[in-house]
Amino acid sequence: MNTLLGKLTFDANGLIPAIAQQHDTGEVLMMAWMNRDSIEETLKTGQVCYWSRSRRKLWRKGESSGQEQRLVELRLDCDGDTLLLLVDQKGVACHTGRRNCFFLAWRGGELVEIAKPLVAPEQLYK
């Protein structure tokens, strides 16, 4: 694990961006931040863990919603400053109840909602 951590370039806050992608379909699900502790926990447990900048603590994906991510493979880019997490997503990935966080598209000079929620957010976070 130290070999991996030594190859990573963290920002001034000790964070690195992580893109979560569904391992079998290639669907880009979300982007979040990780720090050393969240990377270590993810690799040890296989359950994806991020760093929540708003809560200022570790955030285990699905801990309150049940919409967990299981790590299939962790990849780093050529500069070591971005992670790609190939995951198996249980349920929806976005806190808005959508499968992924990229549901707004710039089309014809305006933002268009291209995916409706699959689950009501209030149902996710009872």
UniProtKB/TrEMBL annotation:
Say where the protein is mainly found: cytoplasm
Q: What keywords tag this UniProt record? A: Amino-acid biosynthesis, Cytoplasm, Histidine biosynthesis, Hydrolase, Magnesium, Metal-binding, Zinc
Q: Which residues form the Phosphoribosyl-AMP cyclohydrolase domain?
A: 30-103
Catalyzed chemical reaction(s) = 1-(5-phospho-beta-D-ribosyl)-5'-AMP + H2O = 1-(5-phospho-beta-D-ribosyl)-5-[(5-phospho-beta-D-ribosylamino)methylideneamino]imidazole-4-carboxamide
**Membrane-crossing residues?**
none
| Alphabetical list of InterPro entries matching this protein | PRA-CH, PRib_AMP_CycHydrolase_dom, PRib_AMP_CycHydrolase_sf
Which EC class, in a word?
A: hydrolase
Which Pfam families does the annotation name?
A: PRA-CH (PF01502)
Cellular location of this protein?
Cytoplasm
This protein's record includes keyword Protein biosynthesis: no
Cofactor note (record): Binds 1 zinc ion per subunit. Binds 1 Mg(2+) ion per subunit.
Names of the cofactor(s): Zn(2+); Mg(2+)
Q: Which positions bind Zn(2+)?
A: C78, C94, C101
Q: In which pathway does it act?
A: Amino-acid biosynthesis; L-histidine biosynthesis; L-histidine from 5-phospho-alpha-D-ribose 1-diphosphate: step 3/9
Tell me the residue numbers annotated for binding Mg(2+). D77, D79, D81
Entry function? Catalyzes the hydrolysis of the adenine ring of phosphoribosyl-AMP.
Q: Subunit composition?
A: Homodimer.
User: Which family is it part of?
Assistant: Belongs to the PRA-CH family.
Xref: NCBIfam families: PRK00051.1 (NF000768)
Q: Which HAMAP family match?
A: HisI
The protein depicted here goes by the name Phosphoribosyl-AMP cyclohydrolase
Q: Which organism is it from?
A: Acidocella aquatica
